[in-house]
# Entry
Amino acid sequence: MNVKSQQTEQLERAKETNGVLRQKRVDRWYPLYHIAAPAGWINDPNGLSFYRGRYQVYFQHHPYSAQWGPMHWGHVSSEDMVTWRREPIALAPSVEADRDGVFSGSAVVGDDGKLYAFYTGHRWRNGVNEDEGNLQVQCLAVSEDGIVFEKRGVVVEGPADLLHFRDPKIWRTGDTWWMIVGACSLENRGELWLYRSSNLTDWAFDRVVFRAPDPDVYMLECPDMFPLGNKWVILYCPMGSKKEGFQARNSHNAGYVVGDWKPGGDFQPLTDYRPLDWGHQFYAPQTFEAPDGRRILFGWMGSFEIPVATQAADAWCGQLTVPRELSLDEKLQLQNRPIAEIERLRVNTQDLGSFELGLNEDRVLLEDAEAYEIELEVDLERTTSERVSLTLGATADGGSTLVAYDDLMHRVVLDRRAATHGDRGHRGAPYDGSKRLRLRILVDRGSIEVFVNDGAESVTSFAFPGEGPRAAVLGSESGTIAVKSLVLHHLRSAWSDS
Ligand code: FRU
# Structure
C-alpha cells in the first residue's frame, strides 16, 4: 500500500471509531465554548495558524478512547475564533517515522501559499514504551486546504542517541525560517535546539539557543519563541522542576523567560523563569501571530498523571483554554487575557452595579448556570473581608469550587477542596497589591479560568460540579466587601454543530 492510502485508511478507521465513541459521550462537563474533541482524548494545541481565511487549530488527539494513546492531529477551524467548526482528523500515524504517534508541532504558510505542518514523528525504541527511550524526528506534511495533508517525510533527524527531541515550532524572521525543538541533552539538561532554512524543506543546525537555568530540568516540551514588543519570549514546559511554594505544583508546568535575540546570535535572557498561569490545568501553550499582529495563545487543560473525572464514563478528556492575547508589562512579565472576540459569546447580561456586602454575608449571583462570565471589581481600600469569596458550581450535595482574593495570603486562589468530582487541591496567583481588584472569571461546564487585573495573572483549572443546579455565590468573611461593579454574562455555545 502506498503512503497516501495508508494515511487515508488510518484516518477512516479513526473517524469511524470516534463516531461510535461520540454516541457514548456524557455532556455534564463537556465544554460549551472551549475546544475539545467530539469524543476521545486531546492534549496540546498544534499547528495554530490563519490559513485560507480561517483560524486553524489542530491538537494532539487520541480518537479511540478518553486515554492518551497513539497520537493523531485533531482539527477545528473558525472565521472569527468565536464560532468553531469541527474538521476531519488531519493526521494519523501511517509511516515508519511516526509509527507510534504524530506528536506535537506547528504550522506556517509557505511562499507557495501552502500550509506546512511540522510535527514530531514518534517511535518507542522497544515498540511499546519509553523504557528503552524514544526515536523522535521532525517531519513535514503539506496541505492546500488545511484539511487534507500530504506527508513529505523527515526534515530534521537530530542525533540518534537523544532520549527526547520533539515539538518543532517554526517562524520566519526576515528571509529565514527558524525551527526550535525541545531536547534532552546527553548531560540530561533541557535545551532548545535552533535550526534554520531558506525553503522549509532543508534545515541546518544553528545552535543550542537556550538551556534551562534549573539543573533539575531535563527536557523542555512544547517550546515556543516569538517577538513581543521589542523583546523575545521563550515559552516552554520544563520537565523535572521541583515543587516550591505555589510554583511547579502540577506534574506538568509551563512558563517563560524574556530576553533579546537576533538571527545568528544567542538568546540573552533578561528575566528568570516565571510561570505563565498558576492553575492546575495549563500546559503545552502554543502561540501564533494573527493577521492583525496580535500574539495569540491556546493552552491545554488536562492531566497526564492524575486521572480526570471525565475519563471514567464520559468518553472524552481534555480541552483547550480560551484563546488569549499576550502582552509584556514594564517588568517584562507576560500578561494573558481572553481575546476581545470572546465577548461575542455573551448573551443575557445582568449588571448588579455597585453595592456593599455586609459582615459574613452571602449573595447568590446565579441560581443555576453552566457557562458564564463574572466581571467583578472591588475597592480593597474600603474592604475589610479577609477574602473576597466566590463559591462556584455550588450544588445541593455541598460541592463547589472557591475562587477568592485572599487578603492574608495576597493571592488569588482557586481551591477545590470541596469538589464533588475529580482532583482536589488549591493553587494561587500572586497579587500585585493594587487597591482596585478586578477579577474576570470564565466558567464552563467543567472548567474555570480566572484573570486577575486585566491578565496580569491567570489561574486555570478543571472544576467538575455535582448533580443538579449549579449556583454562584459571593461571600464576605469576617469583614465587609465594597463591590464597585459586578456584571454577569451567560455564554453561548461556540460550536456550529455538536
Ligand atoms: C506534551 C507532549 C509533547 C508531545 C505530545 C505527545 O504534552 O508530551 O511533548 O509531543 O505531548 O502527545
The chain has two domains: 3-340, 346-491. The chain has a mean pLDDT of 97.
